[in-house]
Amino acid sequence: MRVRFLFRSVIVTATLAFFGGCAFPSTDKPAPAEAQPAMRAMGQPVASPASPPASNPRAADEPTDETIGFQIRRLVNTDPITGAGIIIEVDDGNVTLRGTALNRAAAWRAEGAAHSVKGVKSVVNQIIVNAPSVMH
Questions:
Q1: Is residue 123 part of a domain?
Q2: Which of 45, 55, 98, 121 has its Cα between 20 and 30 A from that of 68?
Q3: At CA 43, angle to CA 77 and CA 104, rounded to 5?
């Protein structure tokens, strides 16, 4: 009988301590909020883009390096097996493709995908083709 009473009292005390600590706000002054880094969704620029100058209305339509990279990755990933080892780097509209591909066709498809994206100025294909080993 004493064991049950002791067990129940421990459970009730633990429950009250848990909910009591969570339910009542502290009477102390709240700590000042720390500056949190800005959150953004994938594809959104880190900072809000500045409005383009009035003399160049096409600047608003120019894709960023990040959007160019995402579009190329989306096109390359249509076949995840062949696009898995390909790394895409974009710098001021100049695309560099690196990594490995299973065959030349996969490397050429990645290069063609890069050329097809709006805003790409040049494409450098540095993809290494891993030829399958032949055992005799």
A1: yes
A2: 55
A3: 25
Structural domain count, the chain: 1
* SS3 labels along the chain: CHHHHHHHHHHHHHHHHHHHHHHCCCCCCCCCCCCCCCCCCCCCCCCCCCCCCCCCHHHHCCCCHHHHHHHHHHHHCCCHHHHCCEEEEEECCEEEEEEEECCHHHHHHHHHHHHHCCCCCEEEECCEECCCCCCC
User: Is 51 a domain residue?
Assistant: no
Residue numbers of the chain with a pLDDT score lower than 70: 1, 3, 6-7, 14, 16-60, 132-136
Strand partners, 87: 98
In a domain, 71, yes or no: yes
Residue 69: predicted pLDDT = 95
